Amino acid sequence: MELPFSESYKIKMVEPIRKSTREERERWIKEAKYNLFNLRSDQVFIDLLTDSGTGAMSDRQWAAMMLGDESYAGASSYYNLKNAIKNILGFDYFLPTHQGRAAENVLFSALVKEGDVVPGNSHFDTTKGHIEFRKASAIDCTIDEAFDTTLDHPFKGNLDLNKLEHVLVSNPKENIPMIIVTVTCNSSGGQPVSLQNMRDVYAMAKKYGIRVIFDSARFAENAYFIKMREEGYADKSIKDIVKEMYTYADGMTMSSKKDAIVNMGGFIALKEEDLFKKACQFNIIYEGFITYGGMSGRDMNALAQGLDEGTEFDYLETRIKQVAYLGQKIKEYGITIQEPFGGHAIFIDAKKFLPHLPKEEYVAQTLAVELYKEAGIRGVEIGTLLADRDPVTRENRYPALELVRLAIPRRVYTNNHMDVIAVALKNVFDRRESIKQGYKILDEAPIMRHFTVELAPAVKTEATV
Q1: 215 is catalytic
Q2: Residue 125: active-site member
Q3: What is the Cα–Cα distance from 316 to 318, expressed in whole angstroms?
Q4: pLDDT in tens, 406-416
Q5: Predicted confidence band at 461 (pLDDT cuts at 50, 70, 90)?
Q6: Taking all residues of the chain, what is their mean pLDDT, rounded to a whole number?
Q7: Residue 186: which pLDDT band, with cuts at 50, 70 and 90?
Q8: Active site includes 155?
Q9: Which residues of 280-294 are buried (b: 16+ CB within 10 A; e: fewer)?
Q10: pLDDT of residue 124
């Protein structure tokens, strides 16, 4: 008999979590103005808000932290990280930053100006925010298949080459500072980009003289999907696939809180010395000296070790199979989710879950709140709230996909927790017809509003009942 699959680690430390009552949760979410970001962590039973910085570090990462060099300049920890980035990713130049959005802030300060256009595949919220804050435009060139949650396509993160070339020929070269390739593509459901697509995008970029930057928060998960799904890579190691991936990039930004399995940290890595020197100026202004950039030495050591662990097949297989386990459970209950399952999260199609709610009442946010009320499970809306308002008209932007993301922290929860999540979602699904109203906005920030928005139940008039 074949042995069943098991995790590639054993547990050394645990943290207690508390179950709350529905009455408590209804009070807490009301006090939080129906924004799950405003909840206290001790008001949450299973926290799937994000997989960013929420993973469990290994014994080797904790050991590396004890050897951290906290020198202001030229710390040995900086060189440990520099060597890891060179060996695993292939870049000669890098700048540490305190997290991924900081890396974007530094790099985009060096590259993006008013009136620019930045094509890519479903830019994530902070990426789009940094672009639009500089009065530039993020143009989504994702393949159309990504927006059909029921379609089984192996690489829904791919860029549509026709859409991309249209952007490149329709705008002056000097107004296109870069093409962004997000691996995996979070906003379309944690979907991977194929190596063939990376190769084709890079060739097109070179034809038009445009640089390619990878948003690399989940690059290792992307490499796993290439190994499992793309012809010719089944016998390649994850590290070999990663090395090839980055031959098709001129640079990268990294939120290390995902695939490097640390609680804080990020970096920029580049091939161009001139761009590196320009970015150094902004790193010093915004982050810190170029050999620490907002990170402690101990955190750089943990990050260097995490890059190595995160690009090992056994770890990735354990991580991604747990996500798939949850996805399969939810699918068996007849709930529509983005397929195939992504690398870091399961994405629920809220419009198909609550088709009777109007889009103006923030359907995905409504579903996320109901799941929290049901079992204390905190997910996050990837829909209209996250899409923000149009910078010119200030009207809501309604994306093609209205999703609730259930992001699974790395090496944190067991499959018993996945069972609880699936059943809680089924319970909400069984009573979905009783959910008669969504939410309205009371107060919002002018950009990236979903983090701090305040909501209230939408008031139904006689005409709308």
Answers
A1: yes
A2: yes
A3: 5
A4: 999 999 999 99
A5: low
A6: 96
A7: confident
A8: no
A9: bebbeeebbbbbbbb
A10: 85
The pLDDT tens digits for 290-314 are 999 999 999 999 999 999 999 999 9
* Residue in 42, 63, 72, 144 annotated catalytic: 72
Q: Which residue has the tokens 């890891």?
A: 84
For the segment 369-389, the average pLDDT, to the nearest whole number, is 96
Burial 63-92 (b: 16+ CB within 10 A, else e): ebbeebbeeeeebebbebbbebbeebbbbe
- From 116, 125, 259, 349, the catalytic residue: 125
Q: Which of 32, 110, 217, 223 is catalytic?
A: 217
Residue 47, classified by CB atoms within 10 Å of its CB into exposed (0-12), middle (13-18) or buried (19+), is buried
**Token pair for residue 9?**
């680690």
Helices 22-31 and 363-375: crossing angle in degrees, nearest 10, is 140
What is the DSSP code string of 446-462? SSSGGGT-EEEEPPPPT
258 catalytic? Reply is yes
Neighbours of 19 (CB within 10 A): 10
- Residues in CB range of 229: below 8 A, 6 or more apart: 154, 155, 192, 194
Q: Give the separation between CA 392 and CA 222, rounded to whole angstroms.
A: 35
Q: Looking at 215, 250, 259, 349, which residue is catalytic?
A: 215
Choice among 258, 329, 351, 417 that is catalytic: 258
The reported pTM is 0.94
The maximal CA–CA distance of the chain, rounded, in angstroms, is 68
Q: Which residue out of 124, 155, 429, 439 is catalytically annotated?
A: 124
Whole-number Å distance between alpha carbons of 269 and 254: 8
Return the pLDDT at 328.
Answer: 98
